[in-house]
Amino acid sequence: MSIDLRLMRYAVAVADEGGFRRAADRLHVAQPALSRQVGDLERALGVTLFTRRPTGLTEAGRVFVASARRILDEADRLAALTRAAGRGEFGTVRLGFVTSAAFEAVPRLVGAVRERHPDLIVDQIEAWSPELVDGLLAKRLDLVVSRSVPPRPEFARAPLHREELVVVVGSAHPLAGRESVTPEDLKGSRLLLSRRHLPGYRAVLLSALGHVPEVEDTRLPGWRRFDELAGGENYQLVARTLGDHLPADAVMVPFADRRPAPPLELVWRRDASPATALVVAVGQASPGASSSRS
C-alpha cells in the first residue's frame, strides 16, 4: 500500500511531542481529526503504532517512525533540489571559450560561479569561434566566451573582459629584444593569421596595423600556431593575456601606443536556461565586466 507523506508527518509529530494534543498544536490541526487520521493509518497497516493513555510508541510504531523520518527528510531534500534546479542553482552549463580566455577570464568566471552556486557545474570546452557559434546554434553549448561572435537575433551578449593587443615573435626575430614596437616596425614581416578566425576579428587585427600587411595563413590549432614563429620572419597579434603565457621560444612585444584587442564577450541564446542565466549574471558582476546588453 502507498502511504501519504502527510500521514507520516502526523505520526512523527505525535512521536516527537509525546501526545496527540501537543502534536495537533504543532501541526495546526484539530486534535480529534489528528487522532482519527492516525487511527485510520493504523487500521490500514493492520498494526498499532501508539499506545494510548499514556501515549507511546509500540515496537511497530518505532519502526514506522524511524523509516518515516528518513523518507520525509529525502522528500524535503527532493523538493529543495527541485526548487534549486528551477532557479538554475543546480545543474550543468556547457561553456565554450577561445584560447585567449583560458588563463584569466574563464577561470575567474568559473571560480565565481563555484563560490556563489556550489551545486552548479560548468563544463568547459575550448574551440575556435566558428565552432563556438555552431555549438550555440545547435544547442551543444549554453554559453560562450569569444571575441568575434557575429550579431544574430537569437543571441544576447555582454562584455566580459577588455585588454590590449600585443605582438608575438619568435626568439630569433629582429624585434624580439625590443621594449615596444610600432606598426611601421612590422613592415617586412609576415602576419600569421588563421582563416578560421571570423571576419570581424580579422578586420580588427588588420585595422590595428594601419597598413595592409603580408598575411600568411596559419592552419595549426591551439598552441601549435606559435611553432610557425620559429623561423624569425613571422609575427602574430594576440590579446595581452595570451601574450603573457607563451612557450619558451616565443616573445611578446607590446605596441608603443596601446591598441585594443576585440573584447571578450559572453554570448548566449535568448532562450537560455535558468542555470545559464545565473552564470551570465555572475559574469556581468565580475570585476572589469560591463552590465550592458544587446
UniProtKB/TrEMBL annotation:
Could you name the Gene Ontology cellular component terms for this entry? protein-DNA complex
* All copies of domain HTH lysR-type, residue ranges: 3-58
Q: Name one Pfam family in it.
A: HTH_1
Alphabetized, the UniProt keywords read: DNA-binding, Transcription, Transcription regulation
Q: Which CDD domains match?
A: PBP2_LTTR_aromatics_like
Query: Which molecular function terms from Gene Ontology are attached?
Result: DNA binding; DNA-binding transcription factor activity
Q: Does Transcription regulation count among this protein's keywords?
A: yes
Give the family per the record: Belongs to the LysR transcriptional regulatory family.
Q: Which protein is depicted?
A: DNA-binding transcriptional LysR family regulator
